[in-house]
């Protein structure tokens, strides 16, 4: 791919069958082998990039099966195996990204139903296919704002043309059910009554895209029992007298609703609930939050075969949920191709919209990435990147201090003050070095 990195070209590469067959069946695949290392030996970035060379964050393999039942009806399934690490525990995440059927209603209208990828980012259609991306990993300041990859539902793709412009309108409805990790503990994430749309306009060199999704969010996690307490404790610490009792009462009521007893919520003197006693009580209990989530994404890409310019602006809002921050993220990327070689640079930023948001839910972060992509073949690329990333505004960004999480639990179980524990992820900085080989076949 010496020139354009366009969705149509990537789709055609992936859609080329691995083997010839007279049956209406195609099997295709993709592979990324990536390694990364950080210069920060105190914290991890994205849970798995630390001061040791790690393959967990950027290594994945996938294959896609397409079965054409007739000229109008077909079925598609895409499966992913992805290395991951959380809190030092390494494993493989195996999942089905796509499992759906599609029917061609007319020449211009396609209906799909099943498990589909949410089309809210510029790169949503091929986000897991490393070969289709200019970077080794997409900017976390934008792409980490949504914790799910897919939804179960239906969408409609309406294609049209206006002069030399290709137009796509894609409404969707469905639900999301997914297990995600929060603070090293399992959590169940659900979005009910979700609806949204994707709208794009593309010419020969320019693509403009807008995506929106809204739904009723429910998130259940043991971590939230503790997080509610930590948030209340930080309010006590920041706002002074007057707020602590309200915060503690709110947390205590939540714990009681999830199975705690009154004796669980008091300190050793048996009197008023204390932050350390509440945090200790919260650890064994499943807590849940509910709210209405809204996500808006705008993106643009210009690619004339030499210059590559792209950027996205995204905003996440969740009502009635202090545990999930409202955020705004954006990035811009500039690259230029010299034959098979493309150097590129990206600046990205994520900000928490609420002022004085508790440290543990604030995600403020900024990064600058410089990289080189080399095309070894029409379906093989080699990438090298340097990235400087920094959590800002007293937040933890995408950094993770496993020692802090362990020490907080140890402190409260022993009756010590958890505020005395230093979270090294707050305002952390790191230089990351990454290399990856991408293949489609």
Detailed description of the structure:
The strands form two sheets. A 16-stranded antiparallel barrel has the order 1-3-4-5-6-7-8-9-10-11-12-13-14-15-16-18. A two-stranded antiparallel ribbon has the order 2-17. The protein has helices at 7-15, 140-143, 222-239, 243-257, 275-282, 402-413, and strands at residues 25-38, 44-45, 60-68, 73-86, 89-104, 109-117, 150-162, 165-182, 185-202, 206-221, 287-303, 307-319, 327-336, 341-352, 365-377, 380-391, 399-400, 429-440. Helix 3 packs antiparallel against helix 5 and helix 4 (243-257) packs parallel to helix 5 (275-282). The protein contains six helices and 18 strands. It has a single domain, classed as Porin. It is mainly β and 441 residues long.
Brief synopsis:
The chain is mostly beta strands.
Task: Identify the notable features of this structure and list them briefly.
Porin; mainly beta; globular; single chain; 6 helices; two-stranded antiparallel ribbon; 441 residues
């Amino acid at each position: 791919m010496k020139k354009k990195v366009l969705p149509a070209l990537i789709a055609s590469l992936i859609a080329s069958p691995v083997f010839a067959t007279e049956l209406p069946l195609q099997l295709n695949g993709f592979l990324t082998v990536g390694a990364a290392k950080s210069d920060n030996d105190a914290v991890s970035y994205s849970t798995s990039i630390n001061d040791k060379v790690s393959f967990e964050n950027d290594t994945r393999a996938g294959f896609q099966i397409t079965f054409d039942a007739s000229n109008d009806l077909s079925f598609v399934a895409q499966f992913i195996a992805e290395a991951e690490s959380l809190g030092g525990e390494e494993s493989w995440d195996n999942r089905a990204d796509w499992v759906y059927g599609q029917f061609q209603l007319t020449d211009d209208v396609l209906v799909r139903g099943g498990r589909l990828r949410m089309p809210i980012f510029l790169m949503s259609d091929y986000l897991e296919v490393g070969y289709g991306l200019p970077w080794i990993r997409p900017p976390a300041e934008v792409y980490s704002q949504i914790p799910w990859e897919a939804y179960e539902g239906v969408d409609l793709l309406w294609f049209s043309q206006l002069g030399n412009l290709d137009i796509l309108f894609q409404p969707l409805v469905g639900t999301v059910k997914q297990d995600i990790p929060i603070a090293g503990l399992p959590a169940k994430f659900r979005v009910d009554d979700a609806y949204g749309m994707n709208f794009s306009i593309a010419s020969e060199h320019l693509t403009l895209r807008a995506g929106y999704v809204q739904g009723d969010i429910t998130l259940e996690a043991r971590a939230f029992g503790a997080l509610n307490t930590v948030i209340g404790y930080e309010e006590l610490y920041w706002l002074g007298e007057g707020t602590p009792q309200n915060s503690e009462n709110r947390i205590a009521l939540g714990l009681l609703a999830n199975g705690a007893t009154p004796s669980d919520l008091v300190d050793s003197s048996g009197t008023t609930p204390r932050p350390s006693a509440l945090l200790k009580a919260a650890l064994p209990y499943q807590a849940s939050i509910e709210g209405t989530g809204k996500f808006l994404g705008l993106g643009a890409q210009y690619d004339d075969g030499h210059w590559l310019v792209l950027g996205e602006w995204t905003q996440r809002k969740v009502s009635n949920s202090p545990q999930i921050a409202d955020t705004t993220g954006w990035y811009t990327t500039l690259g230029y191709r010299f034959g098979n070689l493309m150097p590129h640079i990206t600046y990205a930023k994520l900000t928490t919209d609420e002022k004085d948001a508790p440290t543990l839910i604030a995600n403020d972060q900024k990064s600058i990435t410089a990289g080189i992509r080399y095309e070894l073949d029409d379906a093989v690329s080699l990438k090298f990147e340097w990235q400087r990333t920094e959590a800002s505004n007293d937040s933890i960004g995408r950094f993770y201090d496993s020692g802090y999480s362990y020490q907080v639990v140890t402190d409260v179980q022993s009756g010590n003050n958890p505020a005395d524990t230093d979270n090294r992820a707050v305002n952390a900085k790191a230089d990351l070095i990454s290399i990856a080989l991408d293949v489609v076949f």
